[in-house]
Amino acid sequence: MTIRRVRHFSLSLLTVCVIVVCACAFLSNRGKIDSLYESSIDLNPGWHMVTPSSTALKGTIALERTFSTDELQATKGGPTLFFRTNNASVVIRVNGDYAYSYGVLGKSYVGNEFGSAMHFFRLSNFYSDESLTVNIEFTPAFQSFANKVFSRGTQMLITPKIYFGSKAACLLEYMQASFIPAAVSAVIILLGLLYLILTTSFWILHRKYMRNFCYWGIFSLIVGTGFFMESGMADLFISHAFIRYFASTFILAMLPEFFLMYIKTSKVVTYNTGLCNFFIMHSVANAFIVCVCAFIPGLPFSYVRNYIIICHAIYLFFVIAMFVNNSVGLSKLPSIPSMLVIATSVAILIDFTLYLVPPYRDDIFAFSRYIMLAYLVTRTVEVINEYFSSQILSAREEMYRSVIVRDSLTGVRTRPAFWHFQKDFFKIHTSANERLSLVLCEIVNLKLINEKNGYEEGDEALKTVSQILKLHFGQENVYRMDGSCFGILLVDTPSDSITLKIAEIEKVIDDYNMSQDLGTIRLNMTANTYATKRYESFDAFLTDSFSELGKSRKTFLQNL
Questions:
Q1: What does each C-alpha distance from 59 to 89, 140, 419 come to in angstroms?
Q2: Is the pTM of this model over 0.85?
Q3: Across-strand partners of 97?
Q4: Span 325-379, pLDDT tens digits
Q5: Which of 63, 50, 113, 129 is CA-nearest to residue 92?
Q6: Could you give the 3-state DSSP secondary structure of residue 440?
């Protein structure tokens, strides 16, 4: 089994694993919020830390605040609490009574952690004309990972930003806060879709598969999707928190695969083939690890995510070294796209470092998505410019090729094309039953026509004869051998048929001469068939054919 087949089989199996994980996550109701997501206008002061309840797990943080009747009544549309947690369970009590729970109850087929989740809690369901005391407990999704989610070292406390305000302003405020990261991610996704559309269009219209366009489009699409998953806007569209958590981790694992495949396909830089193939296969293996670990209840998925981040960081060092080495090898300053690749890799490494050390952030790509957008846009412009440059070179090459293989005056093939055809014929047609026939046709009095009536009349004679030959023998079979001579190469054509066509051509020429006042055309034609028993080589066959044409010309002139 070849490496390509192994890779295709692995990607197919990986696709099945992703579908299974997402289906199991969708069937789960743990870590899912079905109510309307809301945000608020501003963070109100007044929250303070209290001792968690006796039933709370290790690492739980409890915040409490008392809302007065005036505060509750002043909020138009009903008082609302909104906050966004990262990989945490939530319990809300109002005046000491249990009111809301997230992440504690429910069945779960995959995943033991949740990822980010948005919580909308309406206080209007609990107050009448009295003040309310709200207590919120935040517990790490996995107890043994408490110190990762919430840290108190050096006065650092990781708690969500809690908003209080009207329902109408909630969602708008949150979308405004998440708009820029989401918009940058959407632009990257659109770039990927544009490349895939271009790839499909070229395949449909020109039957030409632009492999580098395809890989670049897939890479951009995956990058944009991963950035969008971390922007906070994805929480509005995907209610299952673990699906988002799993998808962003899986995308992070697969990114090296498509970027390095693009590098190998486009050949934009020199690279170490062994290391490149290692990271490609390692990327696929990591994606399988992400899928398998989603089903292990005793393993915190955060550990898997951190492992993928560390592997990705090692891969980024390889990318930086690859582009730096390419610039040093060329003994010149790196190009703008190369510098942006290096800058993007460094920015992602900084983001990874900030994500792995306290205080931990929700957005893993807070800085790097903007530099990545600059790189993708710059590289897009460069790729389009390279494409149009290659198209211009192809057009020029086609023009020069047409000059070489196609006679500009008559439109028939040239003598170089004649030799090319016979070489291909003897490579492909090796059967003894396949025979090659050559018909030679010359305008005997072309020189006389040029001297008597001018070269324009001689050109018209050549055009007329070439049109007649193309009509009877086919355009692709007729060659202009020299100034006044044409050759016709025919494969597996009976001798009787050739003789009949020659007679028809002679009659057409006679009719043409009768209709013309000037420029009578005199044709001399012979036909010969190649046989291996008779000729040692094609050159000997061609020499004999021209010798027959010379004898025929002598007889023809004697009979005039």
A1: 11, 7, 84
A2: no
A3: 94
A4: 777 665 566 677 778 888 888 888 888 888 877 655 667 888 888 888 888 888 7
A5: 63
A6: strand
